[in-house]
User: Fold this.
Amino acid sequence: MNELVQLSLSDARDGLAKGDFSAVELTQAHVHAMEAHRDLNAYITEVPDLALERAKEADHNLGRGEAGALEGLPLGIKDLFCTEGILTTAASHILDGFTPPYESFVTANLKAAGAVTLGKTNLDEFAMGSSNESSYYGPAHNPWKRAGDPSHLVPGGSSGGSAAAVAARMCLAATGTDTGGSIRQPASFCGIVGMKPTYGRCSRWGIVAFSSSLDQAGPMTRTVRDSAMLLSVMAGHDPKDSTSADMPVPDFEAALTGDIKGLRIGIPAEYRLAELNADVAALWGKGINWLKDAGAEIIDIALPHTKYALPTYYIVAPAEASSNLARYDGVRFGLRVDGDSLDDMYTKTRAAGFGAEVKRRIFIGTYALSAGYYDAYYLKAQKVRQLIYQDFASAFENVDAILTPTTPTPAFPLGENSSDPVAMYLNDVFTVPASLAGIPGISVPAGLSGDGLPLGLQLLTKRWDEETLFRVAGVLEEAAGFTGHPLEGEG
Assistant:
C-alpha cells in the first residue's frame, strides 16, 4: 500500500476516478505514514477515525458519480485554520482546549469539495517564526538531513509541520498560511512547492489572525499542478472577510501550458546579497538559464527599496499582532489562570499562555503603536511599504515575472538561530517584500545543496496574475527535474 503515498495530488485524483484504488485505501495508507513518522512531530492533532469516515463517504460519492474536485484526497490542515469539532491550537498554550463550533472559509471549501482531513499540522506559535521552534508542542523536524550528518534540521516556519508532512508523504498536500514567507520558506527547506496567492485571493475568515494586512492562506504540495489544483478550491470571494476579493477564480490548472516563449523574466540586483549561500547563488544562475532556454527573455531589474523590507515588516506585523492577540485574555476561551483580580487573571493567563517569541512581538508591536512613537515607527513603516509595492508595480510594467532564490541558505540545524532573533528573521529576506506588496509568489524545488539539502527558487508576478505564475513555475519545475525524496527507500 506504500506506493499510494508516493502519488501526487493530481495523480491520486485521477486514480480514484478510474477506480484504481478506493479513498479508504488511500487514506489508510496516509494514516500508516503518519504513524510511522510521528518522530517528525509534523502533526499536533491526528483524526484518523474521522478521516476514514469521510473517506467512506467519498467512496460512496465516487461510486454515484457525484465526486467533488478533491473527493477522497487526504490533506493536512495547518493548525491555524479553525476546524469545526477538531481542536485548534495555533500551536499556543493559550488556546488549550479550544474546539471551534465553526469552519474556516478555506477548510469549508475543501470539505465541500470532498477532501479528507487527516489532522492539524504543527507551526510556530501563532505563525510567528521561521523555524517551527516556537511551537508550544515542540518543533517539527525536517525529514531531510545533511549527507552523513544525523542531526535534526528545522523544516522552516511558520508552516513547518505542513511542509514536513507533505515532504514525508504523510499527506498528499496541506494548507499553509504566509505572512512574511511562512509557506514559501518551509517549502524551500523541505523540497516541496509552496504558493502564496495574491492578498485577498483566499478568505482569512476562520484563520487565527497574526497580521491582518499580510496573512494569506495558500497550498503546500509536491508539484506545481497540485498547487494550482488545490488553490482553485481554496480561493473564492467571502462576504465575511472585507479583504476578500469579489472576482472569479480562474482555472489555475489550465494555465500550465508548458509554453513561456516571449515572456519577460526580471532578475533583481538587490537579491544578490553578500551572505547568499554559494549553492543557492549557483542554482539561481541555473534557473535563469532554464527559463532563457525555454524561450523567455531575461531582463535585469531594480527593486531599490528591498533593503527596507525586513525592518518594515518587523514593525507592521508585530503592531498588528499586538492588536489581534489582545483578545486572548482567559475570559472567553482557551487557557485561564485564576488571579486575585480581573487584571491579575489577565496578566497571569497571558504570561503563562504566550511563548517567548509571541511576547517579543507583542512588546515590539505595542511599543510601535504607543503614543509618541506611532508616527515615528508604524506610520513611517506603512509609507515605506507603499514604496516597496511601487517598486514591484514599476518592475511589472517591463516584465511578466520575477525570479529570485526563495531563501539565502538551505535548512539549518535545530537550535542554531533560536537565541538570535535577528539571524532568524533574516531567513525571510527574500520572501517578505512580496508579502508587503500583496503579490503572489511560489517556491519551486529546483536542486540540492552540496550536502544534499533541497533548495527552492521563487517566482513572483503582479497582483491577481497567478495564472502566469503557475505557467512559468510549471516550466521551471520541468527544467529542474527535481525528484529528491527525503525518505528514499521507504516506500
Observations:
- The chain has one domain: 1-491.
- The mean pLDDT is 96.
